[in-house]
Specification:
The complex is a heterodimer of chains A (309) and B (320). Chain A is of the alpha/beta class and 309 residues long. Chain A contains eleven helices and twelve strands. Chain A has two domains: 29-128 and 267-291, Response regulator (Rossmann fold, 3-Layer(aba) Sandwich); 132-265 and 299-307, Rossmann fold, CATH 3.40.50.2300. In chain A, helix 6 links the parallel strand 6 and strand 7. Chain B has 13 helices and six strands. Chain B has helices at residues 3-25, 32-57, 65-82, 97-121, 126-145, 155-162, 170-188, 190-200, 202-207, 212-238, 249-259, 271-290, 295-318; strands at 84-86, 91-93, 150-151, 164-165, 168-169, 240-241. In chain B, helix 2 (32-57) packs across helix 12 (271-290), helix 3 runs parallel beside helix 5 and helix 6 crosses helix 10 (212-238).
Chain lengths: 309, 320
């Protein structure tokens, strides 16, 4: 009995200690942990998240995980020990990042996932997700429409070890594979890279000069594919589809050079995440686990709405 | 047949064998368009790898080439796009294509010289010094571009990467000139002989009166310049500078150097060998895509070929 009392005392003491640390009216600190800053899209997401949190009056800092769950783990350890109070988080890996989130959870730091999800329902406080799969289902439907349900096409996928690559490819194929007359003549990786995608398509066109469409797993690759087609004098015959909503692609859609892309909304996701953290600090605890942020289809008819002036 | 010739014909033989296999598997390989594609695609790696060859000949290594490529590419694009503005003097300086390219090459040269300076002045191992530069130059690229591509640089600049001259793509001309100049430098100049001497035995080279540090400094400077040439080519082909351009290019260029028969311990190897090495990698990349091999397998196959090349290289050296 004595032992239990002693244990209880210890626990209470520690509880009191960790409460005492935050007792004063010091403003909470918010960390933004981003999968990579080596890609413009994620730079926008990270900066928007930091700006939103700053606007709400919090001190923020961005941590770059360099697409590496191990670096991410170091980031989490560092920021927990330096007293951050919430994490706006863009995970590197759906499974590999779970243990990092749990580390934060144990330390009493809430984690709000942005854009990419983790395969767990009780690790993160909330996950604000861009629905890559459904977004590419939309692209798939547009793709079938544009091709009239038949023809040869090429798919250029992103980094083969990235879960967004497969979510996008999966959504696209869930529609397109129902049409037996749509024949995929090549599926190659462009590593989400403009130059690589261009070179890969140059080569594919040697083996398959009669393709009618190219679906690319992101917009950088769609631009590379378009350049390869343009150089081969096929840009007006072969239809290009992308994903992300990059400004350059939206312009090309408006000019009728690229058919469609899926517009993701990093700014919306960043705003949600920052607001949730704010609400958490004010005492709210019941957040929906998954908040899908819709991916909008951009085609020639509505491209003007998305153009940056 | 002398030994060097034998070794060179070995990698050349490997290249022919590879071409033969792919030709048998796909009738699209041996077409003029495809071969021009391959040559244009390898031109960037050829430029970088030729610079890398000089470094490796001195028993050094340059891990920073991919990042130096990205930074010079970004600076080039930035100057072409928006020039330089000195607000305090109310002065705006615009850049012509030539101006932008020259500044890019200068940036590459300076970053290379900085590598050489750190390596010789503080006797830091090249691996460490250039590893640091890899991160610094990548970070500088991110700072300069704010992580966003710089695009639409004008059609005259685009011509460098996608134009043709006398029926040959311009990037192929450029890489050819780079190769010829460097073959001349390594074979016919004292500077070239110093490089081999330092790689063969640095102490002996020093004792025989060669200014080892100065040669090293300029070799790293040259490697940086070559990376910048590669940067101009990539930027102009895409008509856009990508902040993540050139990631892991150092590995492709080291692979080209090693497959081409240059010894990582220095003193042995040739520029032409490296060109064959780069061609092998390029043909392999092209063939694997032509045959629509799964992207998962491609990496395994590429690694296997590098391994095989080095094993053969070792064997031929062991039996001399």
């Amino acid at each position: 009995m004595k032992k239990i009392k002693f244990l209880l005392f210890i626990i209470l003491a520690f509880g009191a200690l960790s409460c005492g640390k935050k007792g004063d009216d010091e403003k909470p600190k918010v960390a933004v942990v981003i999968s990579t800053l080596n890609n413009p899209w994620f730079v926008v997401l990270a900066e928007a998240a930091a700006e939103n949190a700053q606007k709400l009056g919090y001190e923020t800092k961005i941590f770059d995980s360099q697409n590496n769950p191990a670096t991410e783990s170091d980031n989490f350890e560092n920021l927990i020990s330096s007293g951050y109070d919430a994490i706006l988080f863009n995970p590197t890996d759906a499974d590999g990042s779970i243990s990092n989130i749990l580390k934060a959870k144990e330390a009493g730091v809430p984690v709000f996932c942005m854009d990419r999800e983790v395969n767990s329902n009780d690790a993160a406080t909330a996950q604000i997700l861009s629905d890559n799969y459904s977004g590419c289902v939309e692209i798939g439907i547009e793709f079938v429409k544009a091709l009239g349900g038949k023809g040869k096409y090429v798919e250029i996928i992103g980094l083969v070890g990235d879960n967004n690559t497969w979510a996008r490819s999966g959504g696209f194929h869930s529609v397109v594979d129902k049409f037996p007359d749509l024949q995929m003549v090549a599926q190659q990786s462009g590593d989400f890279d403009r130059n690589k995608a261009m070179e890969v398509l140059e080569t594919i066109m040697q083996a398959n000069p009669d393709i009618e469409a190219v679906f690319c797993g992101n917009d950088a690759m769609a631009l590379g594919a378009y350049q390869a087609l343009q150089a081969a004098g096929k840009a007006d015959r072969v239809k290009v589809f992308g994903f992300d909503g990059a400004d350059e692609v939206v312009e090309k859609i408006d000019e009728g050079k690229i058919v469609a892309t899926g517009m993701q909304h990093p700014l919306v996701m960043a705003e949600y995440a920052a607001r949730y953290a704010d609400e958490y600090f004010k005492g709210k605890r019941d957040f929906p686990q998954r908040v899908p942020v819709e991916v909008e289809l951009v085609v020639k008819e509505n491209a003007e709405r998305f153009l940056k002036k | 047949m002398n030994k060097e010739l034998l070794k060179k014909s070995q990698s050349l033989l490997a290249l022919f064998a590879l071409c033969l296999v792919i030709t048998l598997l796909s009738d699209k390989f041996m077409t003029t368009t495809n071969l021009w594609n391959v040559l244009r695609q390898i031109s960037v790696n050829v430029c970088i790898s030729v610079g890398m060859t000089l470094v490796v000949l001195m028993a050094g290594i340059d891990l920073s080439v991919g990042s130096v490529l990205a930074f010079s590419s970004a600076v080039c694009a930035g100057l072409l796009k928006s020039g330089l503005e000195f607000q305090s003097f109310d002065l705006f300086v615009g850049f012509t294509v030539l101006g932008g390219v020259l500044v890019a090459l200068l940036v590459g040269l300076l970053m290379g010289l900085f590598n050489g300076f750190v390596i010789t002045k503080f006797s830091i191992p090249p691996f460490v010094a250039t590893l640091a530069m890899l991160t610094i130059a990548r970070g500088a690229t991110m700072l300069y571009t704010k992580g966003i591509p710089i695009s639409n640089l004008g059609s005259s600049f685009e011509f460098i990467g996608s134009g043709w001259l006398l029926g040959i793509p311009l990037p192929v001309w450029i890489s050819l000139i780079v190769v010829l100049v460097m073959v001349f430098v390594t074979k016919k100049t004292t500077f070239g002989r110093y490089i081999y001497a330092i790689g063969g035995n640095e102490k002996a080279a020093f004792l025989s009166g060669i200014n080892v540090n100065r040669v090293k400094l300029w070799v790293y400077g040259l490697a940086g310049t070559m990376a910048a040439i590669g940067g101009v080519l990539v930027t102009s082909r895409l008509n856009s500078a990508q902040p993540n351009a050139g990631v892991s290019y150092e590995l492709d260029s080291i692979a080209a150097v090693v497959i081409g028969g240059t010894s990582l311990s220095g003193g042995v190897g040739t520029v032409t060998g490296t060109v064959i090495g780069a061609a092998i990698i390029g043909v392999l990349n092209n063939g694997l895509v032509l045959l629509d091999v799964s992207p998962f397998w491609q990496q395994v196959v590429k690694g296997g070929v590098i391994l095989l090349a080095v094993i053969i290289d070792r064997k031929s050296k062991g039996s001399k």
